[in-house]
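User: Predict the full complex structure for these chains.
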Amino acid sequence: MTLDAEHCITCGDVAVTGTVVEVAGVTATVEVDGARELVGIELVEPVAVGERLLCHAGIALEKVAP
Amino acid sequence: MKYVDEFRSGELAKALVHELDGLVEPGRALKVMEVCGGHTHAIYKHGLEDLVPPEIDFVHGPGCPVCVIPMGRVDDAIALAERPEVIFTTFGDMMRVPGGRGSLLEAKARGADVRMVYSPLDALELARRNPDREVIFFAIGFETTAPATAITLLRARADGVPNFSAFCNHVTIGPPLKAILDSPGLQLDAFIAPGHVSTVVGTRPYDFIARDYGKPVVVTAFEPIDILHATVMLARQLREGRCEVENQYTRVVRRDGNPRALAVLAETMELRDTFEWRGLGWIERSALKLRPGFAEWDAEARFELPGTRIEDPRACQCGEVLIGAIKPWECKVFGTACTPERPIGTCMVSSEGACAAYYNYGRLARRRDRVPA
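Assistant: Here is the predicted structure of the two-chain assembly.
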């Protein structure tokens, strides 16, 4: 979820898509462009490794259609 | 990169622009409001204004949460941050927003413990690690960001973290759109609705725009092909005499949004009677506050706030920019007294703000001759 300087986190419309690499409880590790981040998955459970999630401010908002 | 490269294809863009050429009526302006600051940013970044037929006039809307926060709320945030027991956490974008008493960045320079976080969950973690301090999160943003605050509140309650609280400034997308549609003399033909807000709320909240105001709406994402495709869809609706809410962003947005996200919002927050929006004034039932059941984690309930209302600087025309009444370059102080380095108005602070986007990508001399409305 590394955001470049052009983007504003407050505006939810810079949410990014990440691929799930690990799931532990209500937290998933997602990979975005090579970087790994932890996101809460309460809103999209259950998730599986390999699924793509739209993530914003540390939370997965939705699954992205394959 | 998947989901990026295919939405930046030059060939696709050319085909869409060609289609758009055939749909617009030569000489008749088509005013399309892109509600979201993310769209404004993308339109300038990718030069879409210069790509589309001159009849298409992108009007920049109020969907930048940083831009619409009134100065008094920034002062309230600074008052919280200056309390000695407080670690005040905020998204980085809010750091430079000027209030009546300067910005959070200036408060930090004076000694306040202000820290940038990427997520409210980071603020909760900070509270766990600093049990002797009060950690307050500056909760701001539309329905895209509010679920992260809601999840954090639920975790704070479940884990019994007593020294975390949220200063809630979350706002909702529907009421400001209605306020704009009710503005006298405003000429708009259609709306590009925000993609990620719609991931949470779905497309139903825009139904009233098509039904009651007769304006087509297309929900779309943030890549140039998405925005051009949405513009084609709007022009096609107008050409065919249709007026509907359509969804271009089908890869994540559903008609009903994310019901679980809406449920956590409803569990933790409720509508305020009224809230002040910069440029739009007071709008009824347009913002969220924490429910009484979460008073223990509500900074407004736990700490005294000055709550003063501050007039915008006289030179600043952010209000007119935010409702699309003027273009950024038409503001008296744009690019002279007001720049991203020393902003007077919020539209120049946020990178998603229309003024900053225009300044950064359009510079000062790229004004286009537009077809008169």
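The two ends of chain A are 20 Å apart (CA to CA).
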